[in-house]
Amino acid sequence: MNKILSLVAVCVLALSGAVRAAESPALTAIIALEPTSKKDGMMLSRTGMATSLGKLVGSPVTVSASEDLADVMRATRSAGYDVFVAPPQVAASALQHGYELVGSTDRAEQYLLIGRNSLASAKNARGARIYLPQQDSIYTYMARGMLNANGLSLKDLSDVRYERYPQAGLTALAIGASDLTVVRQSDWDEWANGNPGMAKVLATSTPVPGGLSVVVKKELPPEMRTKMTAWFANSAPAMGLKPVTVHDDLREYKSVAELGVFTPLSLPGATLVHANEVQELVAQGAVLVDARNDKEYGAKHIPGAVLIPYVEKSLKDIAFDAKQDDFSGLAKLDLSKPTIFACNGPECWKSYKASRAAISKGMKTVYWFRGGLPEWEASGMTVARQ
């Protein structure tokens, strides 16, 4: 009898353990790679990382990888992953949307705007050609920031070439295929030593966190976050990732987040509104348009918001080319009704561009909710989910 009871007890314990494991929510992590860090990403074992982290935190962990930085940036705004292992601009965005910094793999570094010798300064670069990696790369962030500091937009240049390998921009400049490019200080020092007098530094950025940065959701249990911090510092190298032991000043991430990326503070023809005003306007019958994509809308949105996606391919810039985008959904709106446009906060350009499109089509009363969903939540307002 005692043997039977013992066996039953063992089975119950095993079953309860299985139930607890089944109930443990799976954690998600993504490794986002710049073109120049692709080699490091190929060395990293995602399977090994998932297994090791899973054992550490006692929950299943899935690890994915992506080179589509625009998509990864959207995921930071919608809290799409529990952990981001990513370039500094991705981490900077996540830190504004409910994440905390674990650290980075390398010390901070500076980026340089390099130009032909015939250019007297960055201010004289209007009409020049520039070579950059993809739109959401750290190099493009730095280019916008340094140009903005000199009173220029990327739109003020005659040609913006988006390629994949930043160092190739120096070659393009040397052979006359480009007038400007952006590189890291270390890459410039090496290239300039071998190619003296072929180009010059026109502008220098503030320090930028180096290598890959790691951020985790603040809402994860403190004990779990502490364990993961220790894992990235000590166990990550066994999986092919450099130890995450550099703790940069958070102000450096804030500077990256603001470099030529935030939408303007006003929009001629529209009224800038905040969360409490949006709530009042909707109660009075104004239409609230969510310009994000259906996945983001489905995850969470402002109650009563109508989904009309702004499909964005143009530059995140005041001088964007609306012809590159698709906002055909504007035709569904009544131009005579007061309408509010919102998306994912100050660094999301979709609601700004949607507001501009509505104004250009003759919409009489346009409100722009620049703070969008992040401000709505920060104000303590409830959200809806599909």
From TrEMBL:
The keyword Signal applies. The keyword Signal applies. Residues 282-385 form the Rhodanese domain. Keywords: Signal. Residues 1-21 form the signal peptide. PROSITE patterns: RHODANESE_1 (PS00380), RHODANESE_3 (PS50206). SMART domains: RHOD (SM00450). InterPro entries: Rhodanese-like_dom, Rhodanese-like_dom_sf, Thiosulphate_STrfase_CS. Pfam families: Phosphonate-bd (PF12974), Rhodanese (PF00581). PANTHER family: THIOSULFATE SULFURTRANSFERASE RDL2, MITOCHONDRIAL-RELATED, THIOSULFATE SULFURTRANSFERASE_RHODANESE-LIKE DOMAIN-CONTAINING PROTEIN 3. This is Rhodanese domain-containing protein. It comes from Ideonella azotifigens.
